[in-house]
## 1
Amino acid sequence: MTTAAPAAPLQAREPAPVREGGRLLTAALMLPASLWYLILLVLPIAIVILFSFGDRSPTGGYAGGFTFQNYATIIRSPDPFITSIMLAVLGTLLCLVVGLPLAYFIATRGGNRKALFIILLVIPFWTSFLIRTYAWIVILGPDGIGGFVADATGNRTFRILGTEAGVLIGLVYGYLPLMVFPLYVTLERIDRTLIEASKDLGAGRLASFRQITLPIALPGLITGSILVFIPMMGEYVIPEILGYGRVFTIGNSLVLRFFDARNWPAGSAQAVGLILVMFISVSFYVWFTNRGRRTRDVSVL
Amino acid sequence: MTDQEMERYARQVMRRLERTPLSRRGFMWASAMSATAAFLAACAGGGGGSAAPSTAPSAAPPASGASGEPAPQPSYATEGALFMYNWAEYIDLENIEEFKARYNIGEFTYDIYDSNEALLTKLDGGATGLYDIAAPTAEFVKVMVDKGYIVELPFDRIPNAKLVNPTFQNFYSGDDAKYNNYHIPKDWGTTGIAIRKKVVTEDVKTWKQFFEVAPKYSGRIVMVESAGDVMTAPLKALGYSLNSTDPTELNAARELLKGIAPHVLALDSNDYGDKLASEEAVMGLVWTGGVVSLRDEPATADIEYIVPEDGTLYWMDTWVQMAEAPHPEAGLAFLNFIQEPAIQAKETETNRYATANDAAKALVKPEILNDPTVFVPEEAFTRLEGAQDVSTDPLRVEIWEEFSSNIGG
């Protein structure tokens, strides 16, 4: 088939002309998604921001007003934020350390069994998060590993539950599939011939991995890290159940503010703080890993 | 299909699965399929589960329950379901079954909250139309009425409410007396010290001693997650009222709390009994119920519950009916049912909380009736102080936040 117009250069192309009806159709197609975002994302966040500047009513809840006091309180007591960030960073790193070899193995050595491995990873992930977390209480508690070590070393006060270690174990277990899936998808797509070529040129296995595989897998790494870091920052259930509330994170602090103190404005201010912290850290992370690259790969799945 | 064919088919599927390379699309499809399967399974399970009770015998006439209730039962046009919002494991399961059978209730939903503050927050967030009855602690009835969450109870339709001891029914006095029309007492108890005598050899008979002994058992102390109950300990140790809002007194209490915070294992209102049983915790600031039943087990028979000599809180839980209850008739039927002497006596025997119902008290087994932990004797009553709702006092809230965020160091 020959075209009448000359072939357009690769970089610049005229966008296809849209007819009037087409523009209306586009708007109509985008309406549900836009409404969904507006009502379920923008509006609630706007309400939370509004509440964060308000006063607490004497019987608990939100009473109007405009004050910066709630933000002053957060700046005065940043401990929950620091604990959350520490846990999230450590948790993400551990997920990476455990998830990367796993994904690499499935992608390159899986062979015919790839589907089986993926199914084995997916099925527990679809089980109730809460049940899986409670299971760890039995495994790590006085009837399980915690008690075993306590008896073996004679140290009666040894405990895994109620410490950061217990929380980290729960976090890594809960979010590992989220790290493995994007990594697996990128690693599987790697062109084997590139690695062959690098070996032909004399690079050892480690060098090949470092200079060929890793840079190509970087988008998957970024996606996985973000998918894991963000939920970990806001985690409440795992620090509460496995940490006994002693590991005091933002999630615990929010629940304390909203449920016990019934101080909605203070809780809202903390929520806004959390959103800001995550926003800044993720933006920084994406910028950091994407500098010097010609194309910005942000999403993989 | 025969077994052999099934096997052959399964093997074919496995071989097909193994052969295809897993592309992104394939993975997405697999996830979607497993998700749909899980969703359908859950739906079918849930639907099948809730369908069964509604086919329960509807022929059981209301008056057939021979529970020894002499007074004529009023009739209730029950709606066939009851949504209850309650503390965990707070009603005897057999009583629930009896209620369901007698009043033809197909769906009995039992949702749980673990503190009055959580209940209030849920209601603040708009859950009033979700539940029929709830069981707040007495001092919270006032704020629930003021916020319009609960309705005045029609006592003429709940004849068994007359059997409740007036001391408990008239919890509110003076100007607040009108709040007594909004609740029926459920049970009452104390907040006290629990210790495993096997491990803790010291005398811990007062709150003062509790704070002194605590550092020795660092990391093995459990407390209920309730601001009002926990703050009782330091205030009473210092000799103040547990409802105090005086800044000097509260700040003195704050120091005591700061001292004990690093030694606390957890703030747990649900599983403190389990923690004490497994010796994860050996000392506790607890409510009676979770601990008393442990005394009967040989492994944990050394557990002791002490009503502190320097005074403590006596709490009373009450039944209330929500303002926008979806099944008001069923709610009223339950409120009347639960106060039947035999039913109420069974409650006390199961969860070991003292009943406020005099007629039921007469039916309770003697060993429980004479148990000073459950039914506090008269002479000890002078040491008990009733709680008021001071949960919104800003200084108390601040102290509680500080304490909660610092447990474990």
Note: The domain at 69-194+220-290 of chain A is CATH 1.10.3720.10 (MetI-like fold).
## 2
Amino acid sequence: MPILLHCHPGVGPEVTGEALVARDNFSARYDLDRKAGIFSRPSHALAGHSYNGRILVLDQAKGGVATAWMLHEMKARNIVPLALIFNRVNPILAQGAAFGNVTMVDRFDGDVTALFRTGDRLRIDPAAGTVEILNRDSA
Amino acid sequence: MRLNDEERAMLAGEQGEPRRWAISHQVGVGEFFDAADLVPVSQAHIMADTESLGEAGIGFLETLSGAPEAQRRVRVPTLTDPRGLDFSVYKRLGQSEAMAVLEARAIAALKAFGVLMTDTCINYQTIMPAVRGDHVAYGDTGVVIYSNSVFGARSNFEGGPSALAAGLTGRTPRYGYHLDKRRRATRRFRLGTGPRDLSEWGALGGIVGRACGSYWEVPLIEGIETVPGSDVLKHFGAALASYGSVALFHMPGITAEAATADAAIEATHIGRAEIDAFVAAYAQPGDKVDVVVFAAPQLSLVEMQEVADALGGRQVHPQTTLLVATSPEIKHAADRMGLTARMEAAGAVVAAGICFYQSYAGELAAANGWRRLLTNSAKLVNIIGGYGYKPSLASLERCIEAAVAGKMV
């Protein structure tokens, strides 16, 4: 049986994909090279990593209201994370994910950056508020 | 979420597509945050610069603003945050014609909604401050934190789409800082030293912001011996919001709420050593300074005068750019009072309606060969690194001396 984790109901469609995990925060404007699809801020834990098509698992959303538009713009160009998982988001990320129809969930029991590992294959059901870790066994 | 008859009519599309989209977006966000209902707002403020909108966002605005006028007009005064480009200086800054075309399209779409093109992140100093208990839907984290804290207004960070939605419906989901229970201090800091200028107040905001690190933390700061002015609280709040995603702070006896600290919360001491270390962490190797920026937030009229006075008739070094960004209202005032002329005569670029970092900062760096940046804005040094700059923080006077010398002095 895959591991099944519960969270607060989120936004966006149900998706399955590969996790990219770091104990760091997120701002689309300040952390990303959105043309190249990589983390560009030198001090970010994922600096140099591609986020395109990955399920990003990070601690929190940072300041900066631009992310509310940017997820929509990134999705239109098809260089966008498949989904976002956080411990706790701020309104900007919730608004941006809702506007861009990008899958996002938060508020788990436990630290998401420890619950999930880079390379894990995850199925997110935002309406139900569940995430399955498909490559790991709950037994 | 509980909706009244009018809200249900909007959701059913009976008042046209713009309001249907708007309230549907608000219900989605409201449910995510367990909002019980929507609360009427007196103003909205939209962050809609073209760099973040992109072609997709502009296309969205154009489609939505194509609805009949009765369906697309905003229902409460709706202002704009700084834009991506100032048409009077963009060529000098090396911004492209393509950027100017996008800007003109975004402006036309926003005007069609009846949005007031204020292009400012200091509307609390220049347009119409909120009042205590005033529910508003402000974009720009600096505007939200200042209005919530100093005035006792009630706003969450409202990103562009959500602020537009609030303008169209005249409401916003009631969660976060619209609720009494969220506004109590959760962290306590005790100041053991007096920050000496705006850059150090920004550094203090950065230190508190890093320690909080969450939108849901509310810091209370004690030990402030003299009442800070509006520009001080502007820089402090903008940095606090930028480093910590924080939307509300309390200073007992100074800000609108939280007259006393909760003794149960342990206080964290911040002294001279912490502020000096914060500034020192942005020191960069090498002397040359490519660009000196006064922005983030836009300058008040008082700051404009301080920059003009510090230049004192001297010339900016030919290998260095001095960029000053303010709001259109303040620019007009500075023009009228001769401040703009004094700065421009020294070789400075005085821009209105932009705030530098929302103006294709990465492309500006590439077009002008800028890398080493000096500013008195802690917010700017926090955010500009992702665009390829090497930023340092210094007082306004040191920034001006560096602009004149072309290097750190």
Note: The radius of gyration of chain B is 21 Å.
## 3
Amino acid sequence: MTVPLSWYLIFATALFSIGFFGVLARRNAIAVLMGVELMLNAVNVNLVAFWRYLTPTDLSGQIFVVFVFAVAAAEAAVGLALMISIYRTRKSINVDELNELKL
Amino acid sequence: MVGQALFILTAGITLLMALGVVLARNLFHAALFLVGAFFGIAVLFILLEAEFLGAAQIIIYIGAIATLIVFAIMLSRHVMGKEAGAYNRNWYFALAGVVFFFLLLGWLLIKMPFNLVTAEVPADAIAQIGQGFVGHYVVPFEVASVLLLVALIGAIMLARER
Amino acid sequence: MTLPNLDLPPLLPEIILIGMALLLLVVDMAARFRDARAEGSLMAGLTFASVLIAAGATAAGIGGGDASVAGVVLVDDLSRYLNLVVLLAAGLSVLLAWAYVPQFSRESSSFYALVLLATAGMMFMGKSVELITLFVSLEILSVSLYILTGFNRHQLASAEGALKYFLLGAFSSGFFLYGLALFYVQTGSTQLAEIAAQDSGGVLLLIGLGLLLVGFFFKLAGVPFHMWAPDAYQGAPTPVTGFMSVATKAAAFIALFRVLAAVPGVPVEVWGWAVAIVAVLTMTWGNFAALRQKSLKRMLAYSSIAHAGYMMTGLVAGTDALNAILYYLFAYAFMNIGAFAVAAMLERPTPNAPQDATIDAARGLFDRRPALATAMAIFMLSLTGIPPLVGFFGKLYVFGAAVSAGWAWLAVVGMLNSVVSAYYYLRVVVVMFMAPEDETSYVRSRIPAGAGTAIAVAVTGVLLMGLLATPVFVELGRAVIALR
């Protein structure tokens, strides 16, 4: 193993932060969802890297990642269905144009 | 050395792809960048000797989730093409917050002393993962199936034409 | 390979609910309903029956000792009482939904199946002692609540509330997951018990706990992580609002207690401050925002945020406050769902879906329907915290726990906040009893049997649990001893 663990950790943190920025800054709901997917992927990289460097003989880390796959898929399916259903009536899915509800 | 070069190359490309996802004004381009980022992560999984996850990453993230996202973009065709305002007005606050988050967490993680274990990955890793699902993790495995059932009901209910 | 010794009977309540959810979907396919109302009644009836049976199965197990299933879920008296809170909320909401859902949907089977699965997810969450189970069950309740929030497809507000809830919820899941990953890293285990055994107060656990708290605060609608809550609560069909405002809090609080108990190395002085600050912000912001609402449902949504803040006050006392929070959750289930049930009766029907009720709709309610107005008054007074109603004892116990843990100032802030809240709760009472009826007033000409029953049960609960506060509190104290 020539690559230090910290490289993976920095990479994952950077990926998480990029996704985080996408969630905070983008207006389109699908773009926000893509940011969330990047965040979940970053955690997966963390988990796999930790598994490989800290507990390579115990596969819990990898199993955890498979569960994250399932959760991400479920969230994406429901979220995108929701967006399509809103788009049908509104012709826009920009987050800050969701103004049916006001303060 | 080869490993390090390979890592830097893959990680660099993946981060650029990820930046493309959040910066591309055209949603369709963003989705293509997302596919690239997912693929880069799959390569990293393989570099980490988690071949099963690498394959699963490609099948699930690229094959299912990214495809779903592309479908959603095409079904809301209106939002394809250049968006006039792709960003919030307050994007620079977001940027400042995210940079702070990155520096703080990154610094803490580098400083952290880890007890590294240098051991070979078991040859029957995939078999062990499978046994985990029907062994120690059988309850969360079943609970995850309930989650997928929920998603199934919801997606059909929500996306059906009125 | 060896399969674990799977001892399923302790999970009977969850299995009943999941089985019934599947049955509902099959029945819907097999039978062709011509009438949305007939379908709704059948589905609601089956759902209610399964909730009752699950509650009976849970109650029968109380005092029966702890049972661990495959080492990932722990069925103890704490989780049994959590089951009862969640099932109580589900039962009352199903009664309310009985006549409500057919007004806008012909998909009752999906609605009740999702309610049942969400309930099962919450029950799993409260008994998870393993990180993956905790995460997946949290996602079950989240995803099904996103869908239920957007269930009224004739109202854009419903879908928009759901989308906001989804986007922020998915975002918070990222933080939650990151926190779990760091827990796993520090100890190399996903079992809470092993994390507790190895915890020497590492920095990773501290960051992990911080990230987990962000995730929990999102689910609890703690300020500043509350942005989704008013819209989701107002947009959701009213029975769903009542259900999620109570049951989500219950599951999240109990799971949070289990997590906090697993990190004894992170001192309460550290996380206690984070919780205290969020609690102060949550109750203050919730109460002041509630003051200026015109919509009854939105006012109750903000009030729900404020109550999450009161409950967080108890959190700083750690597991010593567990029985206080459990008591508060029971109290809150009765008074809050009761209030939402009355609000649903004030919603003017339109061809597609009932319209949001304003506070003015309650004008002169006492003259037209004295019983309904009295019930609402009881809920409002209880939410304010007037003795001898259940809401008073809830606050007494929670604030008392904070005081005895040395956070007296936090309890004082809580009490001051209750005074502020009196203004908007009592305004509803004043409008109902004093204001003359005018064209804004509206109440359904016939109260559906289901909603009527729900309101009657809630009133009984508010009165009875107030009168029996001490014995109930003592019993809950016995139930939670294991976690201390």
Note: The first strand of chain C starts at residue 67 and ends at 69.
